[in-house]
Amino acid sequence: MAFLFGIIVVYVLYYVLLDVWNNGQTLGRWVTGTRVLRVDGRPLSSNDALVRALLLLVDGAFSLGCIGFFAIQGNALGQRLGDIAAHTVVVYVEKSIVTLSDVLGIVTQEHYTATYPQVRRLRESDLLVVKQVLYRGRRYPNAAHHLVAERLAERLAEVLNLPKPEPKDTYLFLEAILRDYVVLTR
To answer: End-to-end alpha-carbon separation of the chain, Å?
Structure first.
């Protein structure tokens, strides 16, 4: 009994400690590119992680995964019992789309003439959207992504009091906005 109790304690501690200290990721979730968040988007607290870990014994270990499987299938957010009780959800983590080489490859202000100096009025979060739209448009070149890029370019042109770019120039416009922002604000 003491051995079985020790295994359960180690099992629960593994999940609680890694979830709390590693931003909602155990080793398995790190490999699969997922993490656990509260349903409201906040990081897990130690209490949330403890509830999830204890109910994982019921969801997974003691029922051979059957209870967890049926709970996930019957829930709109794909939550098992531990997630429902802790108000958490497992989400996919998108890898960062900006690399160190991207940043180092950008020229400095002394050697750069900005096309759109008005970009200083934008927020960093706005430019993260631009970067994401560019990334997705290149990675998944389809009509839907191009339409999103066109609408974003139109809205940026409106906000910055710039002429609306032609649809064929949408990606060039967004790249110039992003490049100007990075050079002028760093």
So the answer is: 60
d(CA 92, CA 138): 21
128-146 exposure pattern, b = at least 16 Cβ within 10 A, e = fewer: eebbebbebbeeeeeeebb
What phi and psi values does residue 122 have, to the nearest 5 degrees? -85, 160
Q: Residue 167 pLDDT > 80, yes or no?
A: yes
The mean pLDDT of 4-24, rounded to a whole number, is 87
Residue 89 carries which side chain, given as an amino acid letter? V
CB 162 within 8 A of CB 116: yes
Kindly list the distances between the CA atom of residue 138 and the CA atoms of 22, 27, 128, 165, in Å, as whole numbers in the listed order.
31, 31, 15, 18
Show the tokens assigned to 9.
């304690």
Amino acid type, 73: Q
Rounded Cα–Cα distance for residues 160 and 143 (Å): 25
How far, in Å, CA of 134 to CA of 130, rounded?
6
What's residue 151's pLDDT? 92
135: β partners:
none
List the structure tokens of 117. 């100096």
Amino acid letter, residue 154: E
The string of pLDDT tens digits covering residues 88-137 is 988 887 665 555 565 556 555 566 777 888 888 898 888 888 988 888 88
| Sequence-ordered list of residues with C-beta below 8 angstroms from that of 103, at least 6 positions apart, any chain | 182
